[in-house]
Amino acid sequence: FMAHWHMDENAVQEDMHADEVFAYCRKLLPDDGLLNALKGHITAFNVQRVAQQGQVETTEGKILDWATLPLPDGGTLLTFMDATASVLMQRGLAERNDALEAAHQLKNDFIQHVSYELRSPLTNVIGFAQLLADQNTGKLNKKQNDYLGYILSSSSSLLTIINDILDLATIDAGIMALELEKVDLVAALSHVVEAL
């Protein structure tokens, strides 16, 4: 108790009055309302005496749990416990949880945008490019055919990437399950090299 409130060891007496003790506490707890309430719990002669508890932050940044407990002899036990570490850990976990939820929401928003705002127009581009490639609308010269080939190739690659992102999202959401099996690593890497 003396260490919490920086009490002078020589000034502490067995018969100290509550006002003298709270004078030390007031240096670190400028909240007179709480100090007066604690003093009331200790010195009041209420017929119904009940245990009280709470939490307070000192001017030094320490977080203290306090409790008063009526004793059978008419006295009251007042305790303070340093809860700074556990409270800071709880706050850190809450902040981390908030950050994870925000990241999850950001991921969902991204996937929704990829799905609706990118995939749909891309499907239209591929459809029109295929329509032009069929040459039902008229003959194309060699340069136009080359450009159309680039459009179809790039669009197909982009659609594959978008579909892969959406597949990962559905796996993450638990909608789709992976079926694990042995893979020919050389063939898989060859496919990657071709794609790149």
Q: In brief, what are we looking at here?
A:
With 196 residues, the protein is mostly helical. It is built from 6 helices and 3 strands. It has helices at 2-5, 18-28, 32-43, 84-133, 142-172, 185-195; strands at 52-57, 63-70, 76-82.
Task: Based on the model shown, name its key terms.
196 residues, mainly alpha, 3-stranded antiparallel beta sheet, 6 helices, 3 strands, 61% helix, rod-shaped
* Percent helix: 55-70%
Instruction: State the strand order across the main sheet.
Output: 1-2-3
Order of helices and strands: HHHEEEHHH
Low-confidence stretches: none
Write the layout of secondary structure elements.
Blueprint: H1 2-5, H2 18-28, H3 32-43, E1 52-57, E2 63-70, E3 76-82, H4 84-133, H5 142-172, H6 185-195
Antiparallel strand pairs: 1-2, 2-3
Report on the architecture of this protein.
The protein is mostly helical and 196 residues long. It is built from six helices and three strands, in the order αααβββααα. The protein has helices spanning 2-5, 18-28, 32-43, 84-133, 142-172, 185-195, and strands spanning 52-57, 63-70, 76-82. β1 and β2 form a beta hairpin. α2 (18-28) runs antiparallel to α3 and α4 runs antiparallel to α5 (142-172). The longest helix is centred in the middle third of the chain and has 50 residues, at 84-133. The protein is rod-shaped and about 105 Å long. 3% of the residues are buried. The mean pLDDT is 83.
